[in-house]
Amino acid sequence: MNKKEIRKFHLDSRLKMNTEEITNFSLQINSRILDILNSLSKKLYIGLFYPFKNEVNVLELAQKLEQIRLKCLLPRVVSKNEPLKYFSFSYEAPNLNKGFGGIMEPTGQESIDPDIIIASCSAFNIEGYRIGYGGGFFDRTISELSKKKNIKTILAAFEIQKTTFQFQENFDEKVDYICTENKTYNI
User: Fold this and answer.
1) pTM for the whole structure
2) Which residues contact 170 (CB under 8 A, 6 or more apart)?
3) How far is CA 146 from CA 140, 142, 173, in A?
4) Which of 24, 76, 92, 135 has the fewest CB atoms found within 10 Å of its own CB?
5) For the chain, which residues make up each domain, given as ranges?
6) pLDDT of 22-63, one tens digit each?
7) Which CATH class for the 3-186 domain?
């Protein structure tokens, strides 16, 4: 299978999940992510993502992160072939507009580089590679930020998104952790 076929298969599987499964699995995944974040407590800025097409709902983490004084950010597409830029996000006052691809994006003016990026995917393998939606946004962002600072990356995904295929290419960026409802993969 090529990336396009893997993406389609796993997106179709995720879109078949019901609301109760997504909610329950998201809670389990968020708990695993919170455990990782607690072990990386010196990090201040956490880049979340706005859940789209039955993705893990990581926005539920924002309220907990704000309580422990971590700053939440959401990405915005500023140009089709550029890395994502992150802007402040608050669970209490979200300030979002529909953006690139119909995904909700923050309205802030001043971008902030996250210390930790929590990414989504269409599919992943246990080697730490992900397939997104084909735009390369997270790969470009991780690559650029890694040149500036020591960032950590966490992939939030459902087990049904796991593939055994070795699809990675030289431009694909590896994540540090993968959190699913069943397990945390420490890459």
Assistant:
1) 0.94
2) none
3) 10, 6, 10
4) 92
5) 3-186
6) 999 999 999 999 999 988 867 789 999 999 999 999 998 998
7) alpha beta
